Amino acid sequence: RKLLKLRDEGAVSALDDPRLYTLPALRRRGVPPQAINNFARELGVTTADTTIEVVRLENHIRDALNETAPRIMAALHPVRVVLENLPADHLEEIELAYMPRNDVLGKRRVPFTRALYIDASDFREVDSADYYRLAPGKTVGLNGVEHPITCTSVRRDAAGAVTELVCRYENAGGHAKPSAFIQWVADCPERGSPVRLDEVRIYKPLFKHANPTDKTVVPGGWLTDVDHDSLEVVRGAVADIRLWDIIRQFAATEAGAQELRKGNHEGVRVQFMRIGYFALDKDAVLPPAALAGGRADDAKLVLNRTVTLKEDAKKEA
Question: Distance between CA 76 and CA 247 in Å, rounded?
Fold first, then answer.
């Protein structure tokens, strides 16, 4: 009855809304079956009315995905970077493994060009001693790239917002190993990069408290404890070209093809490095031509965040 009340009140979209803990909701969120089995095995069987901390389930989800989800680079809030000392037609092929220090999932070459994107969280205009990523005059490494980059200037629009970073590619040598490495995605349309994401859905706890039925902390009743800002939809994110490889590899398997025909896309699971684990949502549109390796112009890529990379110490259970 409470689940139906949440749906009818508009707090969730349906009974498979990824903020719920029904099996369809967990599946849509991208939770692998073995994580649920391991969680249930840990809890055992009891007739007592108990409240279980969500982090216990999340830990099992991370354990399962850490062993199976390929790693790719992405920027949820991309900022364009231009490497001023490289020619406009510069193109390298950088080989990256899907799993660090483990070739079980193989490797894939991605383009590295004069222009690329980084995430806005990897740049700060005012540097500080406890900040290790990019800032004006500061040098950082790019994942998998031989030489680091140094930010030399910042370009802004009429309103003063940062639109582009001008950096120098330190390929002349003489630089020590950088203390930090950041994600990047090449701006190389002829190689299909970046892969543009129509929506990335970031799900947070549906309720503000661990036990919304506890009237000592929620005197107004459990329905008043709903966090109506528990879903953040990010548009304009980008990922590297390996995302389409992962989708196509899933579609090439008999089991994967069957799931896609049913409209079940959550079997496509990835880790966006340093961001979190994500799964393709059923709202995604995957045209046959795109799955066959052709142009993906008509595709619609919608991903759900399954879980963060590690437990947020500040988050309530």
Answer: 19
Q: What CA–CA distances, in Å, run from 156 to 32, 84, 123, 124, 127? A: 43, 17, 14, 14, 18
Closest CA to 183 of 71, 106, 91, 92: 71
What's the angle, vertex CA 106, arms to CA 100 and CA 109, rounded to 5?
90
**Residue 160 and residue 216: Cα distance in Å, rounded?**
48
Beta bridge partners of 196: 238
Q: What is the pLDDT of residue 48?
A: 85
The HSE-up count of residue 8 (CA atoms within 13 Å, CB side) is 6
Give residue 311's pLDDT band: very low, low, confident or very high (50, 70, 90): low
Query: Could you read off the pLDDT of 127-145 as tens digits, one per residue?
Result: 999 999 999 999 999 999 9
- DSSP SS3 for 188: strand
- pLDDT of the residue at 103: 77
pTM of this structure: 0.92
Instruction: Look up residue 195 and give its two tokens.
Output: 């892969």
DSSP 57-99: HHHHHHHHHHHHPPEE-EESSEEEEEETTS-TT-EEEEEEEEE
Strands 115-119 and 185-186: antiparallel
The CB-side HSE value for 290 (13 A sphere, CA atoms) comes to 18
The bridge status of strand 237-239 relative to strand 181-182 is unpaired
* Contacts by residues 84-90 (CB-CB < 8 Å, ≥ 24 positions apart): 84/152, 84/166, 84/167, 84/168, 85/168, 85/169, 85/171, 86/113, 86/114, 86/169, 87/114, 88/114, 89/114, 90/114
Helix (H) or strand (E) segment spanning residue 26? helix 23-29
